[in-house]
């Protein structure tokens, strides 16, 4: 699995700013914040810091003092799916939000300020897959690229890849590399020659109860051990660990049903 962030510095830290269009953050909105902190704290060794206050009840997940993800609380009147949302970097969230609208997507939240951390918007592509846009105010530090417990990849599962990939290419400046296969509809999105995300088309095999959606992959040292911990902590295993081109990967869900993948390798 290739880390989707910019090229690391010699000391292993990420660069001060992500290139526009790079996946740069992930967040999760849940009903029970305390129980969710317990689950991910035990699974990934995350610690938690409150804020930004402008986002309501919200915490930043920390790994060795570095921010890796955000978790907030859904308002009681909002009946939305519990799902991890990837954010793409932008130098101008207002302009990017307008580009989303002009290309058939929608903006459901923002653009709005997140305190002194930056500015964000949450939208969906023309097929309905939800993603975020993030314009940072300043570099706050990130965990070393690929460290266990950090997000390392994002993949969009949708009906077909051609139109979906074109949307992200025009909004975020991605280039595409299509997998040549008669029975696999798969595109890898690149920036400056680096793979940053993927689009996988399933056609009519896409589950109706899920619809098009993004999946975030988190690095782990041992995928089989991570799956056992997910079960022990009250989560579910949706697809058991399997070996593939990008290492050993399993699809799981937390106790509230948020799906994500754990990825070991490649070695």
From TrEMBL:
Protein name (record): VOC family protein
PROSITE patterns on file: VOC
Domain VOC: from-to ranges: 22-136, 150-265
One Pfam family named in its UniProt record: Glyoxalase
InterPro entries (UniProt xref): Anthracycline_SecMetBiosynth, Glyas_Bleomycin-R_OHBP_Dase, Glyas_Fos-R_dOase_dom, VOC_core
Biological source species: Streptomyces marokkonensis
């Amino acid at each position: 699995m290739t880390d989707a962030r910019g090229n690391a510095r010699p000391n292993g830290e990420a660069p001060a700013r992500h290139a526009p269009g790079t996946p740069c953050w992930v967040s999760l909105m849940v009903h029970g914040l305390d129980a969710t902190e317990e689950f991910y704290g035990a699974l990934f060794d995350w610690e938690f810091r409150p804020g930004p206050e402008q986002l309501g009840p919200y915490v930043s997940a920390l790994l060795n003092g570095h921010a890796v993800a955000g978790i907030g609380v859904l308002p009681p009147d909002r009946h939305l799916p519990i799902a991890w949302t990837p954010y793409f970097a932008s130098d101008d969230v207002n302009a990017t939000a307008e580009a989303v609208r002009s290309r058939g997507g929608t903006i459901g939240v923002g653009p709005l300020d997140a305190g002194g951390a930056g500015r964000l918007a949450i939208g969906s592509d023309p097929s309905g897959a939800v993603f975020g846009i993030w314009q940072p105010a300043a570099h706050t530090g990130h965990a070393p690229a690929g460290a266990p417990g950090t997000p390392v990849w994002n993949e969009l599962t949708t009906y077909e890849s051609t139109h979906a990939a074109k949307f992200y290419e025009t909004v975020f400046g991605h280039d595409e590399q299509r997998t040549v296969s008669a029975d696999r509809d798969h595109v890898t999105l690149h920036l400056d020659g680096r793979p940053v995300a993927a689009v996988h088309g399933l056609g009519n095999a896409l589950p109706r109860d899920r619809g098009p959606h993004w999946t975030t992959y988190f690095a782990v040292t041992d995928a089989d051990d991570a799956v056992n911990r997910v079960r022990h902590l009250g989560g579910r295993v949706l697809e058991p660990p399997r070996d593939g081109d990008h290492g050993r990967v399993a699809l799981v869900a937390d106790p509230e049903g948020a799906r994500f993948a754990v990825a070991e390798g490649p070695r």
